[in-house]
Amino acid sequence: MSIDPADNGVVTIASAQSAVATADKLEALIRARGLILFARIDFSGDAARAGLTMRPSQLLVFGNPQAGTPLMQAVPSVALDLPLKVLSWEDADGRAWLSYNAPDYLRARHGLDADLMKPLSGVAALAEAAAR
To answer: Which SUPFAM superfamilies does this entry report, sorted A to Z (predicted)?
Structure first.
């Protein structure tokens, strides 16, 4: 994958179900793979509690300290982008999407060694599986 400056390293893929159902599926996949779900932030729910409207939008923050810690030991600034995050959201037409930072973008952004990045490359497969 090459890094396109126009997308700022963000990968966005279409989902076959609603944003909430996609987030539910992603959470189940995260847990099934033995990863830690650190947070699930319901931006649209928070907006509603503040009296505002927002299309469905949820951010899942997850990872594995065994994979992330060596990266943070090598280049502490990578902690700005770890744990991994995947955003499940719906557009104005009600179509659901998943967005996440491309591992190649993170590698380039923080000057990380490609071998250290291998554990993070699974985010693409995880997002693809959640989107089906």
So the answer is: TT1751-like
* Cis peptide leading into residue 83 (ω within 30°): yes
**Which domains, and CATH codes, for the chain?**
10-131 (3.30.310.70)
pTM of the model: 0.92
Tell me whether the omega of the peptide bond preceding residue 103 falls within 30 degrees of 0, making it cis.
no
Distance CA 98, CA 88 (A): 5
Give the β-pairing of 57-63 and 84-90: antiparallel
| Rounded Cα distance, 18 and 44, in Å | 14
The whole-angstrom separation of Cα 122 and Cα 132 is 16
3-state secondary structure at position 10: strand
Q: Give, for 60, the enclosing helix (H) or strand (E).
A: strand 57-63
Dump the DSSP string for 58-104. Answer: EEEEEE-HHHHHHHHHH-GGGGGT-SEEEEEEE-TTS-EEEEEE-HH
* pLDDT, tens digit (0-9, with 9 covering 90-100), for 33-73: 999 999 999 999 999 999 999 999 999 999 999 999 999 99
